[in-house]
Structures are given as structure tokens and as C-alpha cells.
What does this fold into?
Amino acid sequence: MQLTHRPRRLRRSPSIRGLVKENHLSVDDFIYPMFVMEGENNRVEVPSMPEAYRFTLDLLVKEVEENYALGIKAIALFPAVPEEKKDLTGTESFNPEGLAQRAIRAIKAAVADVIIFTDVALDPFTTHGHDGIIDDNGIILNDETVEVLVKMAVSQAAAGADFVSPSDMMDGRIGAIRQGLDNAGFENVGILAYSAKYASAYYGPFRDALGSAPKSGDKKTYQMDPANSREAIKEVYLDIAEGADIVMVKPALAYLDIIAKVKDATNVPVAAYNVSGEYAMVKAAAQLGWIDEKKVMFETLLSMKRAGADLILTYHAKSVAQLLATGYRP
Ligand code: PBG
It folds into this structure.
């Protein structure tokens, strides 16, 4: 048969496929989310997230050092705040001696080059588990919340954070945080904005890890409706106009279309958050022997890059880094 085009010519061998491969997974693109807890010399596996742990500060630092040697240079830090430190307005969030602030200082003292992204949201610090301050009727108060978020971000910057990452979805928080950081002399601290963060059921295992599930109601008055995509672009434009250095889409796998649209609509780096529920599904199916874990992990993360993600927050970061280091190619 005479065919002008035979696309299979470019698929004949691994070497040829390597030449024409459009997207690659690299540890350079990963931000590794890590959980820190109080105590000493201890780590606790998150039941719904096999191989993801809450570390005490001493072990967290060791883990960061080990991962840095594997090429993981960026982490996203999440504190598991003890119940007795929580209150209605999340005041512990801006305590200079808070768990997150101590963790930042300890990590920076051990490996100064590690890039620390801190979470800016009140849910791990409030007794009710919402990302904002609530009034007597359970309404989330936007502007009052933003005031606390600014204090929180500034205290993280003072501790040595490289990027603050508002994940709360209050209106106007990026601009207020940018101004707060600048006024405090932290003009070099960046903002990774959780711009298109959806009200998703995929966050369940993360809330188990931190004990941060909302005690009542849901997050639908601040996180986005999964039915919407144009609204994501609006949120992204607002955040960029207010000073976001990097914008994020979250979750990732069920929102690849949003990642692609955001990439097309902007000229800032786009991050994708491969969230806890996405991780849990892969782990659970692999444990049952129903999928090939390594291959599914690589294929999933590659799909996020192909969709347009420049950076990926993923709990798989360490496994991928270890596999790449041994020469594994899917
Ligand atoms: C807190 C926050 C959440 C996640 C990151 N920051 C949970 C939530 O909004 O309820 C989820 C991350 C994950 O599921 O991996 N604002």
C-alpha cells in the first residue's frame, strides 16, 4: 500500500519515540506536599494515603534533606494543628512560634536552597474547620478573613517562606496579601495562588491527614462549582491582576480541561494540584492489584503536563524521583 503518511514511522523504536516525545516528567517540576505534626522522632502514615506521612519536625527535616538529594527542591508545607490550638478565628495561624513557622525555620536552617511554599488558609486552625471566619449564622466573612490571611502570610514570610500559597478562595486576598508582604519588606516573597480551586470531594484524604474537615456545611460558598470553566478564567485573571506570580488549578485530574484553558489564557506559570483523593485512588487500586501503579502514576502526571501544567504538586513526587534516579522509564 502506498501511503503518503505513515505516523507509525515515528513510533518504531524507543529511541525514535524519545526524539519526538512532546512532554517529559521531571523532578524539577514537582512540589512535594508534606505534613508536619508536633512531637519528636515520629511519623504516622495517613491511612487513606499510603506512603504519605505526618512527620514530627525533626524527622521532617531529615526527609526534606533526603528528598533534596533526589532532586526534589520544592515542598508545600501543611501543619497538623493540635485541637487545643484551634479557635473560632484561627489566631494560631499567625503565631510566630506556630508549627508551620517553626518548620519553615528548621528546614531553611538545614537546607537553605529548598523552596518552601506555605499554605494560607484558616481551616487547619479553626474549630469549625472552615477556611474563613464565620458569623453566628455560619456565613463565611470575606473581608474579616482576608485580614487574618494577610497576617498569616506575613508571619510565614518572616519565618523564611519563599512563596505563600493562598488556598482559601476569599475574594481579594491576593491583592491584600501582596500589599501586606510589600509593606513588611517581603517584596521578594512570591505568591502561588490557588486561583481555580473547586469545591471537590477529592480532598477527603487530605482532611483526614490534617483533621481539618468542616464540622458543618460545605465549602461551596467559596470554592468553585465543578460545573464551571469560564469562571476559572475570571478567577485566574483577578489573581494575576492582584499580583499572583503562579496560578493553580485544583484538583488536577478531573480538571485537565481547566488546566489547558488557563494555560492558553495566561502567560504566568501554571501549577496543577494532583490532590489527595487522586493519589488515594491510584494507591487503592494498586493495592488490589487492579492497575500497574508505576505506569498509572507516570501516565497521570504526564497528562497534567500535556494539559499545560508547568508545575505539579503531587504526593507521588518522591516515588517518581526514586524511579527516575534508577533509570526507570515508563
Ligand atoms: C486547605 C487545603 C485543602 C487542600 C489543600 N489546602 C483542603 C480543602 O480545601 O478542604 C487539599 C489538598 C489535597 O486534597 O491534597 N485550604
Notes: The pocket of PBG is lined by residues 119, 121, 123, 131, 167-168, 203, 206-207, 275-276 (CB under 6 Å). The radius of gyration is 20 Å. Residues 142-159 form the longest helix (18 residues).
